[in-house]
Amino acid sequence: MNEESRVMGTLIVVSGPSGAGKTTIVEKSIAQNGCGARVITCTTRRPRQEETDGKDYRFFSRKDFRKKVSAGAFIEHAKVYGHYYGTLHADIEAARKNFSIAFLVTDVQGAATIMYTYPEAHSFFITVARKELIRRISTRGESPLTLAKRITEIDAELAQAACFDKVIRNRTGRLSASVREFTAGVTLFRAMDEFVISYA
């Protein structure tokens, strides 16, 4: 760890295929344990009916998103299914400064960039059975073309699991067990960081 990262909160990168329950597990873990904060992803897509700006995502116009790209504000960004997604460097730094644990939920492409930039980060890959993944993403109201693209990418995403520190299988009907397993892993990684800090 460099001098700056040693005094900041533990960074936990959470990834996996769409529909695996990544954000749900992170939010439930934070709620149950009362510590940590999720870094909110930015996007140009429109909010779904149940989504709130600043809570689920930070919603940007394409014009404003491109301005931030030009300014170098994003640590990673990508165009996914016709919409832009990205993570602001400043949002990561603010979360790590103000909380003992900062959670960052992203796709596998974004996770690779973030873990390269922050080698001290710890990572989780959340997955469920392929058949269940297809069922979950099929209920999101996506266009047939977008749904087809998501399904074709599932296998490529699942193949990236070995690149992460810990893999959690979020079995149907066992969300509570997945949250407990995730929280235990986060607690261990935080303890490891505190040990390093205390002896640095």
TrEMBL record:
Its EC number is 2.7.4.8. It comes from the Bacteria. InterPro entries: GK/Ca_channel_bsu (IPR008145), Guanylate_kin-like_dom (IPR008144), P-loop_NTPase (IPR027417). It holds the Pfam family Guanylate_kin. The keyword Transferase applies. SMART domains: GuKc. GO terms for molecular function: GMP kinase activity. Signal peptide: none annotated. One of its GO terms (cellular component) is cytosol. Residues 9-187 form the Guanylate kinase-like domain. The keyword Kinase applies. It is an enzyme of class 2 (transferase). Keywords: Kinase, Transferase. Belongs to the guanylate kinase family. This is Guanylate kinase. It comes from Candidatus Lloydbacteria bacterium RIFCSPLOWO2_01_FULL_50_20.
